[in-house]
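Chapter summary example: a protein plus adenosine-5'-triphosphate.
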Amino acid sequence: MHILATEGLTKRFPTVTAVDQLSVTVGPGVTGLVGANGAGKSTLIKILLGLLPPTGGAARVLDLDVTSQGAEIRRLVGYMPEHECLPPDVSATELVVHLAQMSGLPRTAARERAADVLRHVGLAEERYRPIGGYSTGMKQRVKLAQALVHDPRLIFLDEPTNGLDPRGRDEMLMLIKRIGTEFGISVLVTSHLLGELERICDHVIVIDAGRLLRSSAIGEFTQATQTVTVEVDEGTEPLAARLAERGQTVSQQGRMLVVKVLGPETYDMIRDATADLDLCLIRLEQGRHRIEDVFREEVAGV
Ligand SMILES: Nc1ncnc2c1ncn2[C@@H]1O[C@H](COP(=O)(O)OP(=O)(O)OP(=O)(O)O)[C@@H](O)[C@H]1O
């Protein structure tokens, strides 16, 4: 079953095509939508919420049409916008209760539900203080809480880790993972950092200039970009030559060799070649998957 599907979806602004003939499907679970700044992620989310009309093509969310059933979609979908949009002089509790009531919950149920979601996102006593005094991490949690308060089946999270320090980023990612696994809510989460989404997503979609570059289960994704970085004290060239002779794909980056991992045998060959050549191994490091690598590989393959 698809959570959402687009077919030839296009959005043109006067000077730029933000979404370009995009055909993609998303299943249940946590899906990452990755692209550089300006790739079209926020525009796509606004179209999927029925807030922005597409110029061409079609899209369905939870089997509802985005152009004619936007209000129904928004009843079933939570949305955490990218930009700072919180009123500074009300508390998190007041805001989330208010938004729950706007979604149709009676006052008592809205209060209970708001308390529940604020607890889930980790806002304790501070939820009674005005939002203006919150840290970025706390504000992101309030935005997440309001996206969850009406008990949605699906949530769209637009750059939820923006502006967070490494610890805040980790906490937010774990929270998103829990929403997907424990609460059974499907998630579409955007980021310009592929690395962080790899940790929590079942599926990743990569877009560039509004076009689909790739849509894959996370396993296929990491496999395709898997490399290992090797550094030896001296003898980088002979090691590269030896590995290439053994059928490995090797490229030299300064003092480092980047070797494509074809399987467990790649590690064995690096170990054996280093020992045979009597080299001192300084570093053997799992390649880090960066969005630039994916772009480079996909573009090279076109
Ligand atoms: N309302 C608009 N009018 C004109 N151009 C727009 C509008 N909204 C977005 N764009 C343009 O469309 C392109 C895609 O923008 P979008 O915000 O969707 O990208 P994004 O991937 O979400 O990036 P970011 O994370 O930086 O917001 C950009 O070139 C942007 O300038």
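Key point: The longest strand covers residues 17-26.
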